[in-house]
Amino acid sequence: MNLQDKLLEHGIRLKSYTEGTHKAKCPKCQPPHNSADRPLSVTVDIESIVWFCHHCEDTGSVHDERNNVKQINPVKKKVVEPVKIDTVSDTKFLDEYFVERSISRETYKHFCIHSKDNKWIAMPYNPHNNRCDNIKYRTVDKKFKQTPNAKKSLYNYGAVKDSITVVFVEGEIDVLSLWEVGIRNATTLPDGAPAKANFKEGDKRFSCLQTHPLNKAQKIILFVDNDGAGDNLNKELLHRYGKDKCWYVEVPKDCKDANDVLTKHGAATLKKIVEQAKPYPVDGLYSVNEYTSQVIDLYNGNYTKPIEIGYPSVDRIYKVLKGTFHVWTGIPNHGKSTVLDQFLVSIAQRHGWKFAMFSPEHSTSMHIRRLAQIVTEKPFDKGFEGRMSSDELHNALDWVKEHFYFIETREHIPNIKKILDIAKESVQKFGINGIVIDPYNEVDAKRQGNYREDEHIRDFISSCKHFARNTDCTVWVVAHPTKMQKENDGGYAPPTAYDIAGASHWHNQSDAVVTVHRDFDDDSINIITRKIREQGLYGQIGQCTLVYNHKKRVFEERTLDVSDYTI
User: Fold this and answer.
1) Could you tell me the CATH superfamily of domain 312-565?
2) Staple partner for 174: which of 120, 169, 462, 562, CB 3.0–4.6 Å?
3) With bands split at pLDDT 50, 70 and 90, how would you rate the model's confidence at 35?
């Protein structure tokens, strides 16, 4: 069975089977919007045929196991002949057209531009001795055509091929506009801008970049049209020449292209725009210019302010700023999670924030129970005086539903990427302001190869910080200490970030470090700020004390009614 028959078995029929690339209808999708569509790209050679559909993305191939070279018709190479230029034309017709575009007769004559049938404006590509590579035609109402089977080349190539600086525009009229103001080193593609930036190396639209290279160009100024198609062309040229070589121009808002600038603002402005072209910034490298307005805003007090939690003694040392990374630590069962939950409820009540919670140490239902107690300030369980009523519970649940979401993966222990992916989606869909990971050691800590624990922790923290800054969300991570120091009385000293596995990373990379340490003798709890990156902005190093109110089931500032704090 030959290759043609094999191809027919897949429902693909070609008009010709010569070597090269052909277009055909796709048997898998047959796009209904236009019966003339031929989205299937089929590449034929003597040993195989490969296809790809640009509509449904179906792909496949057939091969000749016998390597029968006679199955495919040999390719017939065409000899591209130079195009003859007919310069006999109506000068009046051309004068009227170009006067409106502020382009002189001297300029358009230099480019051997002439008219055909007083309808088409003929623009030869690289004319020489009454011959040229190609002729592009356009009408006054912007209809275009080119000489069939002509050589594709860059416009004005003779003037730019040895230039150190080249101005790349989107149309021949723009080349003429720049020539009019004394800028001779401009060029354009014959086929204009693409409808979509595909970055395909075999794109025929850009083939003349290889056949007509700009080898000596050290600086390529991109001056394409200020529209969607121009943006696509800009991306394609950046891809092909590289940001290190490309410069950009700033065009007045009322202008689309170089000719627009010439006709609306004059020659001096057009020339100045090109002369003031700027280099594309190096990825990851910025100058003061990018931050000047932000610094001035900081100076004038126009920046995102930290929010207060709602407890005066706490607010003195600890506030919350969007987009920051906080580490909470403390001895197990000293109330880290309870206090953090209480602070989040207060933030939600005072500022309307929403949170995503990854807290697998307790079931989600038990976590919601704790939040309901905080919201109602009443016991949840039977047997306690002042227990919340059913109506109060349902009101609390409605409130929690508005402000808290719970991350569960149920089938496996997730890694940090999975958690942050869910959190990112929650930001987009529900407007999440903060995420809590409680505790860190419940996150999958599998490491590959020689990947050390401290390296894993470093990357974990970096991922959290990157998420925080890119989403403007605050991230809290509760991390248990792995070592604790005994004091002389037999008790344990309040831990620091240096008592957590990977010690230095937790302290150095965090924006805030908080220790929660409980005194069981009087049921008080110490909030100790170990680190505040921007002291004075959202806190300071220090500590405060809250007391547990057994009647309300919350920690609060101490009052004179001591009975509230006793069982």
Assistant:
1) P-loop containing nucleotide triphosphate hydrolases (3.40.50.300)
2) 169
3) very low
